[in-house]
């Protein structure tokens, strides 16, 4: 166990102790207004092998009646009994700058009490955005990579049969407005707000274009003025900007997961002078009843149960380890490793060090 722990902690030191490398602005931030949009719609999955919604659901029956009426077939809700139709909710994500005719993957989820939608076909379902406008239409075969069969005595199921996907099942019918057209300024929103990172982005952009193109009023965004050289060429400006590399600054943080024993410590974690020792007291009590019987051929006497208790106390010997002020993550890991602690013991130690005020980092327990 100690060897395994040593290997894990050494790997952790290698991963976090190296200085952070520069990262592209493209991976640190996104432009305001350029984002995905969620779409949702209602539809019917047909062609099921008796695993559709039951008659108690009724929603799929009304939907079939409405569909048949649009096709010129008049019928009544009371005249239809279906087992191969399921009412579903269809969802998709519309990426920015999607054009008419582009295809999207859609997710299909049962709305009623269908047992499975595997092998079914999604009928034409309009997908609407938050403004209640139709942006795409979905249709196609549903793939679930699952099955569900059974009788009265036993059932067999693999994966989740009441939800599936239709790859490239939606066609974009309405385009989103182009957020770059006619703009003289753009807002760059950082994925993680940080004063130092925002300042470094401003410096890198201004150095690139040799002019005060970028400015920041808060740690979460950077305002970019499109230079005159890039007038009506916003795409080229953004492309030149995204490739710039900036070294982000991160907050000193320690993340603990007590359920799995996972400990992740950031590069900037520091510890003030503190002494740490970790030991455990083991108390083992074992009861062994002893049966006392009379001697053979004796005329008097009785059988008795005599209790016997074995008591054993063990206390592991641990050394007192002193970590000097300003110790880095590597020093911390090596010092705690010398104490022979397990990952779960490490969680307890770090919590105690934080309580003592010696851990100069945010402690997050998940």
Overview of the molecule:
It is a single chain. The chain is α+β, with helices and mostly antiparallel strands. The protein has 3 domains: 2-17 and 252-281 and 316-365, no CATH class; 37-172, no CATH class; 180-246. The chain has helices spanning 2-17, 25-28, 59-70, 195-209, 234-242, 329-338, 343-355; strands at residues 23-24, 29-31, 37-46, 85-94, 103-110, 121-128, 134-141, 147-150, 155-158, 163-172, 185-190, 214-218, 221-225, 245-246, 253-257, 262-265, 270-271, 274-276, 281-287, 290-292, 304-306, 309-315, 321-323, 359-360, 362-365. The chain has a 6-stranded antiparallel β-barrel with strand order 3-4-5-10-7-6. The longest helix has 16 residues, at 2-17. It is flat, with a radius of gyration of 33 Å. The two termini are 24 Å apart. The relative contact order is 0.13. The model is unreliable at 1-19 (pLDDT under 50).
How much helix is in the residues?
Answer: 10-25%
Distance between the termini: 24 Å
**pLDDT averaged over residues:** 80
Q: Report the uncertain regions.
A: 1-19
Q: How many domains make up the 3D coordinates?
A: 3
Characterize the biggest β-sheet.
Answer: 6 strands, antiparallel, barrel
Question: C-alpha Rg, in Å?
Answer: 33 Å
Secondary-structure content class: alpha+beta
Strand order of the largest sheet: 3-4-5-10-7-6
- Overall, the morphology is flat
User: From the structure provided, what is the oligomeric state, counting identical versus distinct chains?
Assistant: single chain
Number of strands: 25
Compute the number of helices.
7
Query: DSSP strand (E) fraction?
Result: 25-35%
């Amino acid at each position: 166990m100690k060897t395994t722990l040593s290997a894990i902690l050494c790997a952790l030191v290698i991963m976090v102790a190296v200085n952070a490398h520069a990262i592209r602005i493209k991976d640190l931030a996104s432009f305001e207004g350029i984002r995905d949009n969620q779409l949702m719609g209602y539809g019917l999955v047909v062609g099921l092998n008796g695993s559709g919604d039951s008659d108690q659901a009724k929603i799929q029956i009304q939907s079939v009646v409405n569909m048949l009426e649009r096709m010129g077939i008049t019928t009544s809700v009371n005249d239809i009994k279906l087992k191969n139709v399921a009412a579903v909710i269809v969802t998709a994500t519309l990426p920015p700058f999607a054009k008419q005719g582009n295809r999207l993957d859609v997710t299909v989820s049962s709305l009623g009490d269908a047992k499975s939608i595997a092998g079914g076909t999604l009928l034409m379902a309009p997908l609407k955005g938050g403004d209640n406008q139709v942006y795409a239409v979905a249709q196609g075969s549903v793939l679930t990579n699952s099955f569900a069969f059974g009788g009265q005595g036993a059932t067999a199921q693999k994966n989740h049969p009441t939800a599936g996907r239709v790859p490239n099942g939606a066609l974009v019918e309405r385009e989103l407005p182009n957020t770059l057209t006619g703009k003289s300024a753009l807002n760059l929103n950082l994925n993680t707000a940080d004063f130092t990172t925002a300042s470094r982005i401003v410096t890198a952009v201004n150095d690139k274009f040799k002019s005060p193109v970028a400015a920041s009023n808060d740690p979460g965004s950077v305002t970019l003025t499109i230079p005159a050289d890039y007038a009506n060429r916003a795409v080229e400006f953004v492309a030149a900007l995204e490739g710039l590399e900036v070294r982000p600054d991160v907050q000193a943080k320690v993340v603990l997961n007590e359920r799995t024993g996972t400990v992740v410590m950031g590069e900037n974690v520091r510890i003030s002078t503190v002494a740490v020792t970790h030991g455990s007291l083991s108390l083992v009590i074992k009861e062994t009843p002893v049966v006392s019987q009379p001697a053979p051929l004796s005329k008097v006497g009785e059988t008795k149960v005599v209790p016997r208790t074995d008591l054993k106390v063990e206390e592991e010997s641990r050394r007192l380890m002193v970590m000097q002020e300003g110790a880095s993550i590597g020093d911390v890991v090596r010092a705690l490793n010398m104490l022979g602690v397990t990952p779960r013991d490490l969680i307890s130690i770090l919590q105690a060090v934080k309580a003592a005020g010696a851990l100069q980092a945010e402690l997050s327990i998940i």
